[in-house]
Amino acid sequence: MVIYGILLAVLLVMMLILYIASRHKYDETIEEFEGVYPLLFLAPVSLLLMNKLKILERMHTQVAYIQQKMISLHGSRDALKHTRMFLAQLISVIFLCLLGACLLGLLTSGDHLLFGIGLMFTVMIPTFLINQLSTLEKERKHKILLELPEFVNKVILLVNAGETVQQAIIRCVEMNTNDDSPLYKELKETVNRMTSNEPFPQALNELSKQCAIQEVAIFTTTVLLNYRKGGQDLILSLRELSHDLWEKRKNISRTKGEEASSKLVFPLIIIFVAIMIIVGYPAISIM
Predict the structure, then answer these.
(1) What is the pLDDT of residue 230?
(2) What are phi and psi of 36, to 5 degrees?
(3) Range name among 80-89, 122-131, 179-188, 251-260 with the lowest pLDDT average
(4) pTM, whole model, 2 decimals?
(5) Average of pLDDT values for 214-222?
(6) Cα(227)–Cα(212) distance, integer angstroms
(7) Which of 100-109, 208-217, 249-258 has maximum average pLDDT?
(8) How far is the CA of 251 from the CAs of 100, 183, 245, 268, in angstroms?
(9) Please, are residues 215 and 148 in contact by the beta-carbon 8 Å criterion?
(10) CB-based contacts of 72: which residues, under 8 Å, 6+ apart?
(11) Least confident of 58-67, 108-117, 156-165
């Protein structure tokens, strides 16, 4: 019990010292991510500790994995900032879990089991948060693949109507009303590059890098190979690509439907067991 009290006191004193040392030092960085990441009240402590221990340099392999996910989710320009804030979130979670484990051990008069459970959560929650990045990356990819066939069809219609490919892409972005779309978010960046007199091939190459999806790369390559020629070559290539994209969209929709059905199995089993208990208990009690 005394050990847990000492550990709790050491953690609280260390957090207090770090908070005083980091006060107002990272205000601008934290304000930028207001509402994006939780536990921002502990972010100054975590960021200072991260810099003092040089975690980014010493854990290069693990950090590189997280940064790769951030590049996919937020683009290469903001990936490092998101990586730093995500690591700060992990450190904050570890701090809170350690405090909770020591507090449990102290309140239960030195119960080692509850302290061990607290330590287990110290490992499990950060692991879960890291694995969640892969889930978010997969969801982003699916959203882009679901929207890409419609976008390609719009481009085909506008090019058929006499628009250039550049103007067709700009018109599609202007007509979009979904601000949460990951595809149109990247397309807006592409349009901004084009309107800033950046060469069209370079803008499309950046789009391919930012999306980091094979289907988008195929679209940009198809456009770059045929946009100067125009005419039927471009239309035929885009139509063939559109057909393949619609097939992939159908497969994704079918997979999502199967996943949704499988998630309903467990609740249905619980409901079935509950009904059996409700119906069977009176008969058993009479016997």
Answers:
(1) 58
(2) -90, -45
(3) 251-260
(4) 0.73
(5) 87
(6) 22
(7) 208-217
(8) 45, 19, 10, 26
(9) yes
(10) 137, 140, 212
(11) 108-117
* SS3 category, 163: coil
Tokens 């879960």 locate to 128
B/e letters for 13-22, b = 16+ CB within 10 Å, e = fewer, are eebeebeeeb
pLDDT of residue 265: 67
**Average pLDDT in the 180-186 region?**
85
User: How many CA atoms lie less than 13 Å away from 285 in the CB half-sphere?
Assistant: 6
Amino acid at 161: A
CB pairs under 8 A, 24+ apart, for 101-107? Answer: 102/4, 102/5, 102/7, 102/8, 102/11, 103/4, 103/8, 105/1, 105/3, 105/4, 106/1, 106/4, 106/5, 106/8
Q: Token pair 């892969």 is at which residue?
A: 134
For the chain, how many residues are written? Answer: 287
Average pLDDT over residues 193-214: 85
What single-letter amino acid sits at 270?
I
- Judge whether 44 and 29 are in contact, CB under 8 Å: no
Q: Please say whether the beta carbons of 226 and 234 come within 8 A.
A: yes
- Residue from 140, 155, 138 nearest 242 by CA: 155
CA angle 192, 178, 80 (to 5 degrees): 55
**Separation between Cα atoms, residue 34 and residue 48, nearest integer Å:** 18
Q: Report the amino acid identity of residue 70.
A: M
Phi, then psi, of 181 in degrees rounded to 5: -75, 120
Quote helix, strand, coil % in the chain, to nearest 5: 85, 0, 15
User: Tokens at residue 162, please?
Assistant: 């006499």
Task: Report the mean per-residue pLDDT for the chain.
Answer: 81
pLDDT at residue 258 in the model: 66
